Amino acid sequence: MPVYIVATVHVRDAERFAAYGKAIAGLSEAHGGEYIVRGPVSAFLEGSGPDGERIVVSRFPDAASARAYIESSTYQTARAAREGAADVTMRLIEA
């Protein structure tokens, strides 16, 4: 059953965040993932969030594949380097 990783991102240091993006390029796909949505929030229709907030939605074939992506050494190394460059919240959605 497909699952989704939904991430909200508020970038604080664009240069360091761009380096993180380069470090994980192709990693999602290597674990069977595909990006569904990647981009800035254009408007808040209900509630609020920080200016410049971005949303990333990725679909994976199953929860094991999504977890393998997040738990991979490549992702964990990039995540550590991203520390402080952005506020990121990731959710696993099984729908």
Q: How would you describe what is shown here?
A:
By secondary structure, the protein is of the alpha+beta class. The protein has a single domain, classed as Alpha-Beta Plaits (2-Layer Sandwich), CATH 3.30.70. It is built from 4 helices and 4 strands; from the N terminus they run E-H-H-E-E-H-H-E. Strands 2-3-1-4 form a 4-stranded antiparallel beta sheet. Helix 1 runs antiparallel to helix 4. 13% of the residues are buried. The mean pLDDT is 97.
The percentage helix is 25-40%
CATH class category:
Alpha Beta
Distance between termini?
A: 8 Å
Class per helix and strand makeup? alpha+beta
- Shape designation: globular
State the order of secondary-structure elements, H for helix, E for strand: EHHEEHHE
CA-atom Rg in angstroms: 13 Å
